[in-house]
Design brief:
Blueprint: E1 6-17, E2 24-35, E3 39-43, H1 50-57, E4 65-70, E5 73-77, E6 80-81, H2 85-92, E7 93-97, H3 108-117, H4 123-136, H5 152-164, E8 170-174, H6 182-199, E9 202-206, E10 218-223, E11 226-230
Parallel strand pairs: 3-9, 3-10, 7-8, 8-9
Antiparallel strand pairs: 1-2, 1-4, 4-5, 5-6, 10-11
Helix pairs in contact: 3-4, 3-5, 4-5, 5-6
């Protein structure tokens, strides 16, 4: 496997909060990699380090030590950023969270469009791109609806469209189906699989939901800040 097949690589990631008697090791020597087009689940109990790892990869919460490489580019070296974090996130990483965090007074279309306009897309081009993404995710008929007029699953589809707006190579999702029922939760997971396969982007999902693990290529389990690969993505 060539290095440029890798969307993400981490080397010895460790995150320590506090010091002395108050020291907490939230993440310990995490080394793993995710290929382009691969869909990965991160499982584990609360406090295991899943979200700490996700926010380190997402360049939100820097590690205490270790390295993060995205598309073979070194972006974090210990707690030091090697790139402009804001610019790099906008161009390479899309985020989806448990709550869709849509802007309530903007339509579905406008929620996606604004993500492009922040990145200096002209309004007309941003609108066309946003409409195309909503259509890709079977939400074009809801483009004019406010978030309050959408179901939870529909809101998450708009959130995924927004995350895809700037054509990121990496999608990070933190408990994206926690507020959804089984059927809608599975639909969102299958949507991520579609993105990974067709857009050739890597998708990393933190989840407690074991009902749809069969859609993942690889499953990792975290406990006490350490990571271990599960050989088969079985429920």
């Amino acid at each position: 496997m060539h290095a440029n097949d890798m969307a993400v690589e981490t080397q010895g990631l460790t995150k320590i909060y506090g010091s002395g008697n108050t020291e907490v090791v939230a993440m310990r020597d995490v080394t793993f990699s995710v290929r382009n087009g691969e869909m990965v689940a991160l499982l584990g109990p609360s406090g295991a380090g899943k979200s700490t790892l996700l926010t380190a990869i997402g360049l939100i919460n820097p590690p205490t030590s270790g390295k993060v490489l995205i598309n073979s580019h070194l972006v974090m070296d210990d707690s030091r950023a090697v790139v402009n974090l804001t610019e790099f996130r906008r161009n390479h990483i899309g985020f989806v969270f448990q709550k869709s965090n849509l802007i309530p007074f903007l339509s579905a279309l406008e929620n996606v469009q604004v993500a492009l306009e922040i990145n200096q897309w002209p309004a007309g081009k941003a609108r066309r791109q946003a409409l195309g993404l909503l259509d890709y995710l079977n939400m074009a008929d809801r483009a004019a609806n406010l978030p309050s007029m959408l179901s939870g699953g529909q809101q998450q589809r708009v959130a995924v469209a927004r995350a895809l707006a700037n054509r990121p190579s990496l999608i990070l999702a933190d408990e994206p189906t926690a507020a959804l029922d089984s059927e809608r939760g599975r639909q969102v997971m299958e949507l991520f699989r579609k993105v990974a396969r067709e857009q050739k982007g890597a998708v990393i999902v933190v989840t407690h939901d074991h009902r749809a693990l069969d859609v993942f290529d690889t499953v990792y389990e975290m406990e006490d800040g350490m990571i271990q690969k599960r050989e088969r993505a079985a429920p």
